[in-house]
Amino acid sequence: MFSWKALQKNKTVRYGVPMMLLIVGGSFGLREFTQIRYDVQKIKRKMDPSLEAHVNTKRQAGLLQEEYQEVKLDEWRNIRGPRPWEDSKDYQEQQRSRQSPEA
Q1: What is the pTM of this model?
Q2: How far, in Å, CA of 76 to CA of 80, rounded?
Q3: SS3 of 60-90
């Protein structure tokens, strides 16, 4: 039917078949590698229980209240810092003098 030399000279067999094998084989290879990638990401996403409790939306409202009670400051005051063009030492002394009679 076909001789070996005739198939070697045929451009479709010589260049087309290896190209098609590369395309089809690459598709299967990429599928395997992407599956490995997603499996690794799934394993890394598993959280420890304490962090998972923070992410859980059902318990989040209670956790926010607990965090607020921990962070709540009774005597908090907003004190402006010096501007870049102001002398910081003079401004700090000025703030201390304003703050000391109130305390």
Answers
A1: 0.36
A2: 13
A3: HHHHHHHHHHHHCCCCCCCCCCCCCCCCHHH
